[in-house]
Amino acid sequence: MKIRISNPKDLSAIMNIVDEFDYENPENFIEECIEKDTVIVAEIDNKIIGFLLYQKLWGHTPFLALVNISEDYQRKGVWKWLVQFFEEKLLVEWYGSYVSSTELNNRKAQKFQNKLWLSSIGELDMSHWIEVFYIKNIKK
């Protein structure tokens, strides 16, 4: 398995494994993130099997926004390799922590946050749902 920063040629392969998520135009959003070098892909035999997307909130706070793995490769540890690459990239860029969030009623995503050793730091009432925020310190 190869883990790397994505490039514009990866967009269609990434879109093939995108689960539904709440962005008005997911393809444009992912394309913008690729241009900012904030999409990391996992590939086997030159086929993209998963990706991790992050943003920099307020220009300086890494936010783990999305991890999607192709159905055929789920539960095989691909997410661990993506997250490890992401955390190492952040350390090289002098970041000591990152944040993430999920909806309060999304138990699957909450289990994922716990597997990453993220700590809950609070909730925000978004009027129609409650968003739970997490942080992980990665300084060595």
**Structural class, from secondary structure content?**
alpha+beta
Instruction: Bin the strand percentage.
Output: 35-45%
Could you name the CATH homologous superfamily?
Gcn5-related N-acetyltransferase (GNAT)
- Overall pLDDT: 86
* Percentage of residues in helical conformation: 25-40%
Q: Indicate the CATH topology.
A: Aminopeptidase
Number of helices: 4
CATH class: Alpha Beta
Describe the biggest sheet?
Answer: 7 strands, mixed
Architecture (CATH level 2) name: 3-Layer(aba) Sandwich
Number of β-strand runs: 7
Straight-line N-to-C gap: 25 Å
What does this structure look like?
The protein is of the alpha+beta class and 140 residues long. It has a single domain (2-100), classed as Aminopeptidase, CATH 3.40.630.30. It contains 4 helices and 7 strands. Strands 1-2-3-4-5-7-6 form a 7-stranded mixed β-sheet. Strand 2 and strand 3 form a beta hairpin.
Keywords:
140 residues, alpha+beta, Aminopeptidase, 7 strands, seven-stranded mixed β-sheet
